[in-house]
Amino acid sequence: MTQASPILQHIVFWPLAAWIIITAVGVVRLRSIVRSAACLMTCFVGIGGMYLMLHAEFVFAFQILVYVGGIMVLILFAVLLLQRAAGEELRHHNEHGGLALLVSLGFLFLFGKLVVFADTWQAVGGALPGRGTLVWTGHQFLGRYIIPFEVISVVLLVAMVGAIIIARTRGPER
User: Fold this and answer.
1) Is 118 inside any structural domain?
2) Number of domains in the chain
3) 15 within domain boundaries
4) Is 79 helix (H, G, I), strand (E, B) or coil?
5) Distance between CA atoms of residues 167 and 174, nearest Å
6) b/e map of 112-125 (b: 16 or more CB within 10 Å)?
7) pTM for the complete prediction?
């Protein structure tokens, strides 16, 4: 792929970054769980756009398919199923929002101080040879990391079955 001009990169990066930040704040601040989940889905799409800007097309596709497609369907399915079982609209609210904001800003400052502004970053020209390709990622994913991959799939399956069991046993008529 060809590199885009720095001006074009800024034209795409800053609106995409603002979109990610606004939807991430929406995930935390919206009171409706379904709207919060929808903001999370759009945030994941924005993060996928960042991967596309970094020429990581495989990670972009994986981000869209797994997170936006799979996990958001699971979250919305569980939320809507539990909401129906509870017989009321589920809402989340944190009374300690100010404290959470203060702690988050403290962590952001600490992260910026220790990681971003550290002088240990070195620029490397180009991708590492043989790494980062689709074939290399596939070999790593289905070779070296097959056990964590399968464990995650079993955990997601157990979470979905657990949500169904909880919703069926805690229905309004029981």
Assistant:
1) no
2) 1
3) yes
4) helix
5) 11
6) eeeeeeeeeeeeee
7) 0.59
